[in-house]
């Protein structure tokens, strides 16, 4: 992917690696989602016949998403088995007991917007209630285990469903938006802020080898957006929505 971009002679300056990461990330996620969906269908079609599932998924991966054993560097058979296993474990609601445990062991605020549970807001006149959110989305194979769950308010939980990982295709208009500088920060949508928050957590966890859940806890909930480098513009890659003084570990929000 990076080579293809380089080959086009695009002059993207300092945004080159940001955009390359974005495209690679978006493609991988897109592929992952489509494969999981295919695996889900195949499992429904042949519920009891694993070898038929393997054969059919293999054929469909080649036909519909042009993923062939030649393009895959590892053992394609094992890979197909793994995708089927992920699909098998996929959609699970946390049990009541697990929800209670997660809420008990986590801070008493929404990990995304930072609003305190029990406090009163316009959208929560009877006190904000916690829901339990999959930090790495279920649609992308995220497990329903305590290490992947954090309490979020209902508004953030349902909005985050669309964001999943920040590179999701629908976020592209925001990434490439020609943002008007005067209104840049105040007009940023909630979705864009959530995508920036998810992106910061993903990059923190990659750089520090921590789980995504610990990364969210370390960077803290969303804050008003600011530019990372005040000499640079207001594009997606130069904005952050968390307090970067919270973390003692040095990392770059890419
Ligand atoms: Zn929230």
What does this structure look like?
- This protein is mainly alpha-helical.
- The protein has two domains: 2-88, no CATH class; 98-240, no CATH class.
- 45% of the residues lie in helices and 6% in strands.
- It has nine helices and four strands; from the N terminus they run H-H-H-H-H-E-E-H-H-H-H-E-E.
- It has helices at residues 2-7, 16-45, 50-65, 76-88, 96-104, 154-163, 172-175, 190-208, 212-219; strands spanning 130-134, 149-153, 226-227, 239-240.
- The strands form two sheets. A two-stranded antiparallel sheet has the order 1-2. Strands 3-4 form a two-stranded antiparallel sheet.
- The longest helix has 30 residues, at 16-45.
Number of domains: 2
Overall radius of gyration: 20 Å
| Strand arrangement in the largest pleated sheet | 1-2
Overall average residue pLDDT: 80
Strand content: 5-15%
Shape: globular
Pfam families: HNH_5
Protein name: HNH endonuclease
Keywords: Endonuclease, Hydrolase, Nuclease
InterPro entries: HNH_5, HNH_nuc
Key features?
disordered N terminus; 254 residues; two-stranded antiparallel ribbon; binds zinc ion; 6% strand; 2 domains; mainly alpha; HNH_5; HNH_nuc; two-stranded antiparallel sheet
Topology record:
Blueprint: H1 2-7, H2 16-45, H3 50-65, H4 76-88, H5 96-104, E1 130-134, E2 149-153, H6 154-163, H7 172-175, H8 190-208, H9 212-219, E3 226-227, E4 239-240
Antiparallel strand pairs: 1-2, 3-4
Helix pairs in contact: 2-3, 2-4, 3-4, 6-8, 8-9
The chain binds zinc ion.
Domain HNH endonuclease: 110-162
GO molecular function, one term: endonuclease activity
Keywords: Endonuclease, Hydrolase, Nuclease
């Amino acid at each position: 992917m990076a080579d293809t971009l380089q080959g086009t002679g695009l002059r993207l300056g300092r945004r080159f690696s940001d955009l390359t990461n974005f495209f690679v990330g978006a493609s991988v996620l897109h592929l992952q989602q489509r494969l999981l969906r295919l695996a889900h269908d195949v499992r429904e079609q042949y519920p009891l016949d694993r070898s038929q599932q393997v054969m059919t998924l293999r054929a469909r991966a080649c036909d519909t998403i042009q993923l062939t054993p030649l393009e895959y560097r590892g053992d394609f058979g094992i890979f197909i088995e793994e995708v089927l296993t992920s699909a098998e474990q996929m959609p699970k609601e946390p049990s009541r007991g697990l929800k209670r445990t997660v809420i008990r062991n986590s801070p008493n605020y929404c990990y995304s917007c930072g609003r305190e549970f029990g406090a009163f807001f316009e959208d929560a006149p009877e006190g904000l209630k916690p829901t339990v959110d999959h930090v790495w989305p279920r649609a992308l194979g995220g497990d329903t285990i305590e290490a992947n769950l954090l309490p979020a308010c209902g508004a953030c939980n349902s909005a985050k469903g669309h964001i999943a990982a920040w590179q999701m295709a629908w976020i592209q208009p925001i990434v490439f938006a020609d943002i008007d500088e005067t209104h840049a920060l105040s007009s940023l949508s909630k979705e864009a802020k959530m995508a920036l928050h998810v992106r910061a957590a993903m990059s923190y966890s990659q750089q520090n080898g921590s789980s995504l859940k610990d990364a969210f806890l370390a960077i803290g909930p969303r804050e008003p957006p600011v530019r990372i480098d005040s000499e640079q513009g207001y594009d997606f890659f130069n904005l952050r929505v968390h307090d970067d003084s919270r973390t003692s570990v040095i990392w770059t929000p890419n």
